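Form 7-S
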Amino acid sequence: MPLAQPDAALSEAEDDLALPGSEQIRRAHEDRLRSRRKLVRRRERQQKPLSAPVPTGSHTSARIIGTDGPYFLARLATGQEMRAKSYKGTHTSNPGGTLVAIGDDVQLAVQEDGTANIDTVLARRTKLARAAAGQRVAFEQVVVANVDLLVIVASATQPPLRAGIIDRYIVAGLDGGLSVAIAINKADLATEAQREEALYFRDVYREIGYSVAIVSAETKEGLPELRSIIEGKTSVFAGHSGVGKSSLLNAIVGREIGRTGVLSRKYRRGAHTTSSARLITIEGMPETYIVDTPGVREFANHELDPGNLKFAFEEFVKYQSECGITNCSHIHEPACAVRQAVEDDKISIDRFTSYQKLFEEAKKQEFKRITKA
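Output:
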C-alpha cells in the first residue's frame, strides 16, 4: 500500500484536533493519532528498500544500535540495517559480562533469510555497566558500549535531587572510561527552594570539573547548552526512573523517540517508558548520537574496589597527600586531610556522604569475593 494514504489520514486527523470537544475526547484522539504515526513509521521501515543486498554467507562488520524483538539491530558501514542474533558459537572479547550490548562492534555472518548471526563481539573501548539485579553470582550487565559521554539525568523536583544516585553513575562512568556530564531536568516545575538546591548541586559538580546544565524539556530552558555539551559525541543518557529522560530526549532530538510516562502516585517513582537501549541520530548535528537507556529505580555498581574508589572523587586528590597515613581511606584514620576539608566546607558533605556509602558497599562486595574464592 502506498504511504501517501496514511500520511493524508494523519493530516486530516491533525486538523480534527482544532474541533471543539471535551478534554477526554481530545486526549483519546491524540492517543489514536500517536498510534497511527507509529504504524506509518513501521510501514516505512518495512517498505524501505535495501541499498544493496548483502551476499548470503558473507562476513561483514557492523555496530549494534538497538533491539527488534528477539533480534539485535545492526548497522553496517554502508548504513544498511539488518537483524542479527547471538548463538552458542558467538565469541566475545569481553568475558564476564553481557554477551552483546548496544554500541558493540561485531562481526556478522549473513544468513539465507536476510538476518545474520553475530560471530564475534570485539573488545569494548568504553562501557556503562551495572551489577545485574537478582543474580546470585556477581554479573556485569553492560548497558551500552563504545560511547564517549555519560549524561546523568536528574530531576529538580520529583524524584528528589540527590547526590547519591548521581555519584553512583559517576563512579560507573569513570570506571568504564567515559567522560561525564549532568542534566538537572524539570526546572520549570521547581519551587524557589528546589531551584536553589539545583543551583547548589550545579556549582558543586562544576567546581569538580563536570559539565552541568539545568534544563526543562517543556520550556526548552538550558537545551542549547546541553546540545553543545553532546555535540560531536556519542552520548548515553541514564538516570533514575521518573526524571523525565524520555521527554528531555524528545526535546533535544526534535521528534518523539519514546513514550513518556508519569510518576507513581503511591511512591512518586517513575514508570518505565523505555524498555531497552537504542542509538538515536540527531538531524542537523553531524557525528552526534544519543543512546537512550531504560530508567532504573535502583542502580548497583559492579565490583566496586574499596582501595581505588577514592580516585573517582576527584576533589579528594589535592588533599589526600596531606593525610597522616599513607593510602588513607578517608573513613576512619586519624589526621585525615580529606575529612578535615569536609569539616572546613571545602568538600561537599553530600559528595562525602556518597563516598562513605559506596565505600561500605565496596567492602561488603570485597568480603564476598574473598570468601567465595
